[in-house]
Amino acid sequence: MVDFKNEPQSAIDAHGIIGDMRSAALVNDRGSIDFFCWPEFDSPSVFCALLDTPEAGTFQLTPDLPNARREQIYLPDTNVLQTRWLSDEAVVEITDLLTVSENVDELPLLIRRVRVVSGKATIHLSCAVRHDYARAPTEAKAEAASVVFTASGQPGMRLIGSQPLTLQGNTAIATFTLAQDEGAEFVLGGQEDARVTNDCTDLYLERTLKFWRGWISQSNYRGRWREMVNRSALALKLLTSRKHGAIIAAATFGLPETPGGERNWDYRYTWIRDASFTVYAFMRLGFVEEANAYMRWLRGRVSDCCGQPTKINILYGIDGRQELPETTLDHLSGHGGAQPVRVGNEAFDQIQLDIYGELMDAVYLVNKYGEAISHQGWK
What we know:
Blueprint: E1 15-19, E2 24-28, E3 32-37, E4 45-47, E5 58-63, E6 69-74, E7 81-86, E8 90-98, E9 110-128, H1 131-134, E10 139-143, E11 146-150, E12 157-161, E13 166-168, E14 171-179, E15 183-190, H2 201-216, H3 226-238, E16 270-271, H4 272-285, H5 288-303, E17 315-316, E18 327-328, E19 342-343, H6 355-369, H7 375-378
Helix pairs in contact: 4-5, 4-6, 5-6
């Protein structure tokens, strides 16, 4: 039996990332989603075990194969992640994705599919949504074949599965056994989202695979490092807002720069410097639209300067907001005990003169290879 409650924190590098260009989640190689901010990159977390214990929120789905060798891979040319357990008893794989929707305003939809490739395995599930960085008391309630998670002032979420779900406190749990070639699937999304159903997961997976593969096929890189370059490009695209065009520095907050250190910043925002380097990478690979979208987003920031066209912040929120007040989450123990755990980033008030050089380099490239900048834009 898997002891979910006492599951230790995973190393940072024991994770894969999934995302839909609106939000992102980290999946460790034990099958647990232990970091997920929803519904936006910079929204409060609903799973935050990476920075505390499973009590801070986790979605654990794992076979009872304690001696299995584990590995994580991405399905070729996509951001769809597969975690595998390989043992003499059974081979099990879990496929995780955040669906890429045709409508950029639709809420992120998480799909988890487990399949026994060979042998027979007992699978354990534990889904503990913990709203608002695990600060808001979350109530779980069974509704028909699903479980609804609600908290005062927070967006509700619904979990449904092809296997029966029960409640243990405010956590959804399930234990079931699958034989060879059998599978199960679970969908987590908005409480009122009609897509939270098991009826269309094949379609959503097919659309998501098609999107990522169609996007990366536009790359003009043909060098010897193509696989690694494409994987890096897919990661950068995952961190790009489809709705706004902004490019965030990372999907995480509160992770330490050094083990046990204090430099635990929130990087879920757009730094002018970092985004400019990403634009340069996109342009070199032939992804012009991402660069154009970022420049359109940036023009909006310049027009926000209220009569100060030379005043550009070093970072902004994804939606362009300028003030990102910082606070600490003292109830979280931190990754490996590294404290404080910070959200928000008051570096928005700093002056860093190097941003202008990187910005002008990105502007030059976009003007040359993408959308031409108007006279007023140059001014």
